[in-house]
Amino acid sequence: MSDDSMSVAVLGGGSFGTALASIAADNGARVRQWLRDPELAAQINREHVNGRYLPDYAINPAVVASTDMAEVLKDAELVLVAIPSKAFREVVRQARPFLDERQILVSTTKGIQEEGFKLMSQILEEETGFRHIGVISGPNLASEVADKQLTATVIASDDAETRTRVQAALGCDYFRVYASNDRYGVELGGALKNLYAIAAGMAAALGMGENTRSMLMTRALAEMSRFAVSQGANPMTFLGLAGVGDLIVTCSSALSRNYRVGQALGEGKSLNEAVDALGQVAEGVNTVRLVRDKAHQEGVYMPLAEGLYQVLFKGVPARDMARLLMQGEQSSDVEFVLPREDVQQDRRATGGRDD
Ligand SMILES: NC(=O)C1=CN([C@@H]2O[C@H](COP(=O)(O)OP(=O)(O)OC[C@H]3O[C@@H](n4cnc5c(N)ncnc54)[C@H](O)[C@@H]3O)[C@@H](O)[C@H]2O)C=CC1
Ligand SMILES: O=C(CO)COP(=O)(O)O
């Protein structure tokens, strides 16, 4: 599976960027990693460890870190952009003078830009106009990837060359890379599941059980799919690793930063306290607001996103919100089988209350 001839650049010195850089190096690629902090770059080069974001894991010594964008991007065939959504466009603009259209550009970031509700690969496209553009997403907790736990991800692109080159660059005996041509669906899945990871962390902190977590995850999938359909995406993609796969892992693990923010909120901390205690980016916090506003504007029924918004930004206690959600509409289980409107109509026809 290895592709020794490939030259890979990773933009971002965080946990996932570092884990991916190490995989590519394990696979025999020439790997350069760009980050802002010269001391962290020096530590990666000297000790082969990222003490700030992945202190407990060894990085392949072949990864060369640098703060010099031109040097990192020189001759790179594949560029992985692992920068939080808030800074994503700014970093791509910084990189732009050193990029050329033969390169493959792949986002690993699971977030949404507020202006225009843009996903990160759309930003890559807008800023460069290149055609080899893709997205990596899936159940990929960075520390487990760095620990070489058996893991799978998805490379999504409508460009076959992007898919096959990324499979060759990153696929190895502990990391499998499945292909999708639904870039938008895969990327949307990665961004949306962060909301429900926050909710799952909250539920755990409130002492709720496994039935509750299972209900939450399944209804989250229904809500994500409803939103996807409203945006013209293919909900079938959510049956894969980047949908249900990522939902399972982030709603089940305190290794997820979004889950940890939820836990802190469930313990009664304010949003600021929860985010400060984390000390890293939890993309879901911003995504809750953006998705809730979009759902409002477009009339999409998203009770979980609305409930999260009320807890995060309106000070409603998490326990009160859980109680309210349990009093909401008892709707269709799988809306692709029995449409929600049919359930509402049945209720009216049989004299029941219309929620
Ligand atoms: N950590 C994880 O388990 C996974 C993360 N992701 C996604 O990957 C994206 C990037 O992730 P991580 O490596 O986890 O990030 P991180 O939160 O561990 O670190 C972010 C990195 O971006 C850098 N950064 C922030 N603003 C910057 C700016 N203006 N200019 C230059 N660098 C800047 C930080 O210095 C840091 O090196 C996240 O948005 C997340 O959605 C995806 C899968 C797994
Ligand atoms: O997306 C992730 C795992 O697939 C990482 O989740 P967090 O950003 O919540 O840590």
TrEMBL record:
Substrate binds at K110, R257, N258. Residues 182-321 form the Glycerol-3-phosphate dehydrogenase NAD-dependent C-terminal domain. Residues 8-161 form the Glycerol-3-phosphate dehydrogenase NAD-dependent N-terminal domain. It catalyses: sn-glycerol 3-phosphate + NAD(+) = dihydroxyacetone phosphate + NADH + H(+); sn-glycerol 3-phosphate + NADP(+) = dihydroxyacetone phosphate + NADPH + H(+). Its main location: cytoplasm. GO terms for cellular component: cytosol. Sn-glycerol 3-phosphate binds at K110, G138, K193, D246, S256, R257, N258. It comes from the Bacteria. It is an enzyme of class 1 (oxidoreductase). NADPH binds at S15, F16, R36, Y53, K110, A142, R257, V281, E283. One of its GO terms (molecular function) is NAD binding. GO terms for biological process: carbohydrate metabolic process; glycerol-3-phosphate biosynthetic process; glycerol-3-phosphate catabolic process; glycerophospholipid biosynthetic process. NAD(+) binds at G12, G13, G14, S15, F16, G17, A142, R257. The active site is at K193 (proton acceptor). Keywords: Cytoplasm, Lipid biosynthesis, Lipid metabolism, NAD, NADP, Nucleotide-binding, Oxidoreductase, Phospholipid biosynthesis, Phospholipid metabolism. Its EC number is 1.1.1.94. It is found in: Cytoplasm. Pathway: Membrane lipid metabolism; glycerophospholipid metabolism. The keyword RNA-binding does not apply. Belongs to the NAD-dependent glycerol-3-phosphate dehydrogenase family. Catalyzes the reduction of the glycolytic intermediate dihydroxyacetone phosphate (DHAP) to sn-glycerol 3-phosphate (G3P), the key precursor for phospholipid synthesis. PANTHER family: GLYCEROL-3-PHOSPHATE DEHYDROGENASE (PTHR11728), GLYCEROL-3-PHOSPHATE DEHYDROGENASE [NAD(+)] 2, CHLOROPLASTIC (PTHR11728:SF1). This is Glycerol-3-phosphate dehydrogenase [NAD(P)+]. The gene is gpsA.
